[in-house]
Design brief:
The complex is a heterodimer. By secondary structure, chain A is mainly alpha-helical. Chain A has one domain: MetI-like fold. Chain A is built from twelve helices and no strands. In chain A, helix 4 runs parallel beside helix 7 and helix 8 runs antiparallel to helix 9.
C-alpha cells in the first residue's frame, strides 16, 4: 500500500495502469457481483423491451394472473404483461439514473474546476451555495423541485441532477485543490501552458478517480429517486411503465397480486445494489487511501 | 571557463537582471525574499546560483520567467536579449515560457503528468510552441529523448511516468525543457532528489546540451560539488543578496567573502592519505540566517562573521571588484574585510 501512495500521490487513473487495476478489481467477489448486476440491468434496459411484449397491450382475459408460460411474471390489473413493464421500466430507470448523473457531472465539474483552480471570490461563494443546497434533506428537495418542474421524465431528470450537483462540485473542487499544488502543474505553467490546457490535461484527468466513484454512487440514488418521485405521482406518469408507477398500482392489490409489488421492488433493490457494489469496488481500486 | 560571454549579436549579455527585488505580503508582514540582485548571463554560459535555504536563489530564478505566486511584488529589471520581461503581459510571457526560457524542477518523481505518456507530454510542448504536427512532434520527441541519454527512446516514448526511474524522469523533464531549444534553461536543484551516481549522469546531460545546443543554463543549487563540477561562473547569495561572484575556478581557488569561505569549510573533503579516522570535524557557520522581514543598512552576514569589525554595521557593503590589481578575473565581492585569498 505504502508504495502505491508514493507512486500515485493524487490517485490518478493513468491509462497505463488500467491492466493492473482490472486485475485487482477482478479478484474481489463483491465488486464483480456488482459488475454482473449492472451489466444485467443494462442488458435488460437496452434489449429487454425489444424481446418482450408491448408493455401497454391490455388483455382483459388475463387480469392479475400469477406467473405462467405466457406471462412469466404475471399480469397487472389491466392485463398488461409484468415482464414487459419491468423491462420498459428498466429503460426509464436507466435514463433517469444516467442522464441526471451525466447532467450533474457536465455542469458540476466545470464549476468545481474553476472554483478550485482560481479560488479568489468565486470559491467561497460557490461553496456556501453548495452548503445551502446540501442542508436540505435529499427527498424533500427532490419532491419540491419535481413539483415545480412538472410531472415528467424530463422534470425528474432535472430535479435529480440538481440535487447531485453540490456533491459533484464539492468533490471536484477538493480534488482540484490537491492537484493544483502538484509539481507537474507548476511544470506545465513553466512550459507556457494556458490555464484551459492545464485544467483539461493536468487537473481533470488526475481528479477522475473520485469522480468516477461518485458517479457510480449517484446513479443508484437517482434510480431510487426516480422510483420515489414516480411512486408519489411527481415523476413519470401512467401509462408509461416506471418501476415507481408500477409500485403505486401494485399497492392497491397487495392482497390479490403481491407479485406486482415484489418484482419492481426486487428490481430496484438489485439495480441499486449492483451500482453500489461496483462503486465500492472502484473506490478500493482507484483510491489507495481508502483501500484495504 | 571564461566569464560572461556575450550574446551572438554582440551587444550585451543574453539575460540581464538589474536591481531585482521581490517582496511577499504575508500575514506576519512583508517578507523581503530578494533585496536587489544584479546578474548577467552570456549565451552558452553555465551560471550557478548558490547559497543555503532561504537565501533567495530560487525566488530570483522563478522571477525570471514570471513564475512567482500571486502576491509577490517584483521590482527591478529582467531583460532577455534587451526585451523587458517584468512588464510583459501574461499572454506574451506564456510564449516566452518553455520556448525561450524553460525550467527543470527539483522533484522528477512528481513533475510529470501521471495521466499521459512521456511522448505525449514532450509532443505537447513541441506542438504548442513550434506548431508541429503529431508526426513531426513524435519524431522530434524520439530525438530529444536520445539527446538526454535515454536508451531505446522509441519504446520509452509510449511509457507512462510511473514506469520510469527518478533519473529517467529527470532526463525526460530536461528533454521537455530543451524541446524548443530555449536560450536559457533554469534548473532549480535538478539533482538534489537523485542518487549521486545518477546525479553525475544528469549533470553530464546539462554540459552536453550547452556544448551541442549552446543553451545558457542557470543552475540553482546548495551543493558546492555540483557547482565545481559543471558551472563556469558562480554567484553566492546570502539573505537575498549576492555576496560574491566569480568564475568557478577562481572562486574555489581564492574565496574572498567570509561566508563563501565558511561554506567551503563546511564541505567534507575527500578522504586523504592521512586516513579515515584523521579527518577534522567539519567547520560550521555559527548563528542563524537573519529574518527576511527586516533589512537593516548593514552587512547581513556580520553577526555570524569571524572577520566582522565595527564598520560592518555602519553601512552595507556593495558588490565590487575583489582585487584591484587583477581586473580581468571578474571576481567581485560584497565585503569590507574580504579574505586576501590564499585558498583554504
Amino acid at each position: 500500500m505504502a508504495e502505491q501512495v508514493v507512486e500515485r500521490p493524487a490517485a490518478p487513473v493513468s491509462p497505463g495502469e488500467r491492466g493492473r487495476l482490472w486485475r485487482r478489481f477482478r479478484r474481489r467477489p463483491m465488486p464483480m457481483t456488482g459488475l454482473v448486476l449492472v451489466v444485467a440491468f443494462l442488458v435488460l434496459a437496452l434489449a429487454g423491451p425489444m424481446l418482450t411484449r408491448d408493455p401497454s397491450a391490455q388483455d382483459y382475459n388475463a387480469i392479475m394472473m400469477p406467473s405462467s408460460g405466457a406471462h412469466p411474471l404475471g399480469t397487472d390489473d389491466l392485463g398488461r404483461d409484468a415482464l414487459a413493464r419491468i423491462a420498459s421500466g428498466a429503460r426509464i430507470s436507466l435514463q433517469a439514473g444516467l442522464l441526471s448523473t451525466l447532467l450533474a457531472l457536465t455542469v458540476g465539474i466545470p464549476i468545481g474546476l474553476v472554483a478550485g483552480f482560481y479560488r479568489r471570490w468565486l470559491d467561497p461563494v460557490v461553496m456556501r451555495l453548495v452548503d445551502v443546497v446540501l442542508a436540505f434533506p435529499f427527498l424533500v428537495f427532490a419532491v419540491g423541485l419535481a413539483a415545480i418542474l412538472g410531472p415528467s421524465l424530463r422534470g425528474v431528470v432535472l430535479a435529480l441532477s440538481f440535487i447531485q450537483l453540490p456533491q459533484v462540485i464539492r468533490i471536484t473542487r477538493g480534488e482540484v485543490l490537491a492537484a493544483r499544488e502538484m509539481d507537474y502543474v507548476a511544470a506545465a505553467i513553466a512550459d507556457g501552458s494556458t490555464d484551459g490546457h492545464i485544467l483539461a490535461r493536468y487537473i481533470l484527468p488526475n481528479c477522475a478517480g473520485p469522480l468516477i466513484v461518485q458517479a457510480t454512487v449517484a446513479i443508484p440514488i437517482a434510480i431510487i429517486g426516480e422510483a420515489t418521485l414516480s411512486f408519489l405521482g411527481l415523476g413519470v406518469q401512467p401509462p408509461t411503465p416506471s418501476w415507481g408507477v408500477m409500485l403505486t398500482t401494485a399497492q392497491q392489490y397487495l392482497d390479490q397480486a403481491p407479485w406486482l409489488a415484489i418484482w419492481p421492488g426486487v428490481m430496484i433493490a438489485l439495480a441499486t445494489l449492483g451500482f453500489n457494489l461496483l462503486g465500492d469496488g472502484l473506490r478500493d481500486v482507484l483510491d489507495p487511501r481508502s483501500g484495504t | 571557463m571564461t566569464g560572461a560571454r556575450t550574446a551572438p549579436n554582440g551587444d550585451g549579455p543574453l539575460l540581464d537582471i538589474t536591481g531585482l527585488a521581490v517582496d511577499f505580503d504575508t500575514e506576519d508582514g512583508v517578507v523581503h525574499a530578494v533585496k536587489g540582485v544584479d546578474l548577467s548571463l552570456g549565451a552558452g554560459e553555465i551560471l550557478a546560483l548558490c547559497g543555503e535555504s532561504g537565501c533567495g536563489k530560487s525566488v530570483t530564478a522563478m522571477s525570471i520567467p514570471g513564475l512567482l505566486p500571486r502576491g509577490a511584488r517584483i521590482s527591478g529589471s529582467v531583460k532577455l536579449e534587451g526585451r523587458e520581461l517584468t512588464t510583459l503581459p501574461a499572454r506574451a510571457l506564456r510564449d516566452v515560457r518553455g520556448k525561450e526560457i524553460s525550467m527543470v524542477f527539483q522533484e522528477p518523481m512528481t513533475s510529470l503528468n501521471p495521466s499521459f505518456t512521456v511522448g505525449y507530454q514532450l509532443g505537447e510542448v513541441l506542438r504548442r510552441h513550434e506548431g508541429m504536427s503529431r508526426g513531426q512532434a513524435r519524431a522530434r520527441s524520439v530525438e530529444l529523448l536520445d539527446l538526454v541519454g535515454i536508451p531505446a527512446p522509441d519504446r520509452r516514448i509510449k511509457e507512462y511516468p510511473h514506469q520510469l526511474s527518478g533519473g529517467m524522469r529527470q532526463r525526460v523533464m530536461i528533454a521537455i525543457a530543451v524541446a524548443c531549444s530555449p536560450k536559457v534553461l533554469i534548473a532549480d536543484e535538478p539533482t538534489t532528489a537523485l542518487d549521486v551516481t545518477i546525479q553525475a549522469g544528469v549533470l553530464d546531460v546539462f554540459r552536453d546540451l550547452r556544448d551541442r545546443l549552446g543553451t545558457a543554463i542557470i543552475l540553482i543549487t546548495h551543493d558546492l560539488s555540483v557547482v565545481a563540477d559543471i558551472a563556469d561562473r558562480a554567484i553566492v547569495m546570502y539573505a537575498g543578496r549576492a555576496v560574491e561572484q566569480a568564475p568557478v575556478t577562481e572562486l574555489f581557488a581564492r574565496p574572498r567573502h567570509p561566508y563563501t569561505m565558511g561554506l567551503m569549510k563546511a564541505l567534507p573533503a575527500a578522504v586523504t592519505a592521512a586516513g579515515v579516522g584523521e579527518r577534522p570535524r567539519l567547520a560550521e557557520i555559527p548563528g542563524m540566517v537573519p529574518t527576511p522581514m527586516t533589512d537593516p543598512d548593514e552587512c547581513a552576514f556580520q553577526p555570524r562573521c569571524p572577520r566582522a569589525e565595527p564598520d560592518c554595521t555602519a553601512s552595507r557593503p556593495i558588490l565590487e571588484k575583489a582585487v584591484s590589481e587583477s581586473p580581468a578575473d571578474g571576481h567581485t565581492v560584497a565585503c569590507f574585510h574580504p579574505l586576501e585569498g590564499e585558498g583554504r
